[in-house]
Write a structure and sequence with these properties.
By secondary structure, the protein is mainly α. The protein has one domain: Hypothetical protein af1432, CATH 1.10.3210. The mean pLDDT is 96. The structure holds zinc ion. Zinc ion binds next to helix 2.
Length: 183
Amino acid sequence: MTELIQAAEAFARERHQGQLRKGAAQEPYIIHIEEVAHLTRVWGGSEAAIAAAWLHDTVEDCPPTSLEELADRFGAQVAGLVAELTDDKNLGKQARKDLQIANAPKKSPEACLVKMADKSSNVGSLANSPPADWPLERRLKYIEWARDVVTALPEKPEIALAEFLDRCARAAQRAQADFPRST
Ligand code: ZN
């Protein structure tokens, strides 16, 4: 592992400390970050992409972390990738979701890979540990939205797309199993 990736990992572990995931299992948030970095690596991501995978949620979720700080510590390329993966927190939730689809076609190949890893991790957690308070409709809507974002990405390596779609199918199956239709 390179120094850049090691430094990004250490930084992410420190900044996400104490945060929990939304799922019923209440896992530490860093499990999500570890998975995104892992997928980005096994799908052949560059050093900068793997570093950005470690850092992809720090600006959004770990104030006062800023893109300027990331640029100072990890360089302009990594900070630029994180910028591509960061929503504008000034916007409402739905506007941010819509923008993820609208902006997807502009993403660089490296940002595409991290984005696919991120969405695969999130959809995977809907299959393995869905939030207890999410009804069927919300789960299905989330899967559909994630699929819309990924579909709109310009670069979709086959191995990554196959994994993502498999997780979508498993999350949908789990949703239907958790909410059996009464006949
Ligand atoms: Zn994420």
